[in-house]
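Discussion board: Methods & Data

I've been asked by a reviewer to show the raw model output for two of the constructs in my manuscript, not just the figures. I'm not sure how much to include, so I'm pasting the format here to get opinions. Each protein appears as its amino acid sequence followed by a line of discrete structure tokens. Is this the kind of thing reviewers expect to see in a supplement, or should I convert it first? Here is construct A:
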Amino acid sequence: MDFELRLIFKAIGFFTLIVVGVPSNIIIIAIFVYIRVREKKLLPSNVILTKLALVNLLVIFSKGFPQAIHAIGVRNILNDTECKVISFTYRICRGMTICVTCLLSCNQCIILAPPLKTWIFLKQKVPSNIPWIMVLLWCINCAIYPSCFLHVHAIGNYTTSKYTLYLEFCNHDFRNTAIYVANGIAIALRDFFFVGTMTIASCYIVFVLYQHGKKIKGIRSSDRNSGKSIEYKASQAVVLLVTIYVALFGIDSCIWIYTLVVSSVSPAISDARVFFGTLYAALSPIVVIKTNKQIKTMLMCHTNKQILSLSESTSKD
């Protein structure tokens, strides 16, 4: 009974994540691609948000779908090659969500920074080099996970070592202590470096927003909205994204530490860790859609066109 209940909650959780995450990330990508084609340019922050939506989508396809399918009783449908590709894709894209969110917060921090010599250099160089920074981040994450192609196999009747991660469709056998420890250290260094950097950048953004709030506090209420610039509102959205990520990262890390100190871990605990590790891919696009002015304008225009078209067809009838 407990087993069936766990699978029901797991199916509901991951199918909800898919239903929310897939269309919302596609909306962001489609709108920004349309703006890029129509206007021949895209703001650096929106370029970063497009990349974030893309890696979110890949995280959902590579982890959300397998988990949801497993929850409804489908088993052992992947061969070795498919296991390697899906495992590599998920791990790379999960790493990229950390890196891209960090880049987004650092970019906003640079935008808000005062016009001092060092900041001016960054203001000039970072926006124009976003594509190259993205390439570097992809390379960093790809370099961490060569073991996915070497040690991931489909579930089958074979002997595994004690350094094996038993996933829903695949097994990731690290073979020995050295590979297991090296992989863990590389992931930990990446995670804590980028999470730490985005936290520091966000704290600076909060400080600037606080100073800005004090500055406009004495302004007449009718002028306060105009005092809140586009950068101010964009900064609030970035801080919210980082807060969500750090909170989910904290939950994920706490569950991971728990699994290390407890000899027998309940499958429900493992499911919860995977769910919280994937949840950002569905929550972050909602925040972006609700806070990005260009996306809201495009959606409003589309909605108004649909209403106008519907009213015209109704009047003709």
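Construct B, same format:
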Amino acid sequence: MNATTITSTHSGTTRGPVDHEVRNQIVIAATQHFRLYGYEKTTVSDLAKAIGFSKAYIYKFFESKQAIGELICANCLHEIETDVRSAVDGGGYPSEKFRRMFKTIVESSLRLFFEDRKLYDIAASAATENWESVRTYEARIKMLLQDILIQGRETGEFERKTPLDETAASIYLVFRPYLNPLILQHSLDSTADAPAQLSSLILRSLSP
């Protein structure tokens, strides 16, 4: 993630004016610090020194270090979601959209979670502690998956006997290891082939 082009996508634990440039200064400084020293080793005092603000002033905008991490994490996850939606919106049959969705989830997750090992610390903390930004992201991915399933049922490409929510939940269990950085790190040797192989398996099960 480019720290100079941060867009606020999560504000559940932020304070002060949402569009205040100071907020972006704090997030940019935090991103740089996390890249250098890691999320766990960086304190709010460290960020205050780096920006030249008092710690109390930072707390006017964020209630905790986690709140800053939440915003950075939300932006990272928003990038993945944007990539996935672009892939799905490319047209084609629902089965083709499904394949592109799975492939893009894996590729984008690998790029954003592992291109910078220090920022991976944020993703790992977010997954471990089930941050709100993670829950929101997962809910949106589930909705996108469900939309594809509905399209497939409407066109007759997918079976319609199994309840939609049951089908979506089951497929999401296959997706989840590739959405969670803690699990994904143990599957790096299979990510090149997994999307195509698992997509084919799932699509065969969806045939009417």
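Answer (T.O., handling editor elsewhere):
This is acceptable in a supplement if you add a one-line summary per construct. For B, something like: The chain has two domains: 3-66, 72-206.
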